[in-house]
Amino acid sequence: MTDYSMLARQLEALLDTRDWLTNLSQTAAFIFHNVPELNWAGFYLHRQPQTLILGPFQGQPACNPIPFDQGVCGTAALSGETQRVEDVHAFPGHIACDAASRSELVVPLLVGDRMIGVLDLDSPLPGRFTADDQTGIEALCEVLIRTTSLTDIPGDNRD
Ligand code: SME
């Protein structure tokens, strides 16, 4: 089982600047290499109205842009709630960037009432993400939100 409290401490030590681009890049790489059985880990950012724009990530080149009314990422952005999808083929509107992906976890990044973007994790294994993974990954996002100036991310009339 992944030791998320150790990962949270390691991530906090890694994020030694408040710069958003540096910290999103470090976080994507850290999660991709420390959480087993992922084929993609990265960020989509709310930089245009009702639209997610691809940010720092690890894995195959990915779909861009993603409107809020599409995909697991759009659902997380619109609802402000984590989406834990055991079988992406059963999720209406799932966007298949990589046919190998079978399960997905998407955590919205909220700073106050501002939706900054989402962290998206994909796995080639069905049902890869448990409730414990969700809690652990949400805790890593809280470290990122606390340590990083996410409201500095440039955007175009976000709503
Ligand atoms: N599957 C996502 C799209 C992003 S990729 O997985 C990297 C979705 O349905 O929103």
UniProtKB/TrEMBL annotation:
Pfam families for the chain: GAF_2
Signal sequence, renumbered to the chain: none
Domain of life: Bacteria
UniProt GO cellular component terms: cytosol
A molecular-function term among this protein's GO annotations: L-methionine-(R)-S-oxide reductase activity
Similarity annotation: Belongs to the free Met sulfoxide reductase family.
Name the record gives this protein: GAF domain-containing protein
Organism: Kushneria phosphatilytica
Upper taxonomic lineage: Bacteria, Pseudomonadati, Pseudomonadota, Gammaproteobacteria, Oceanospirillales
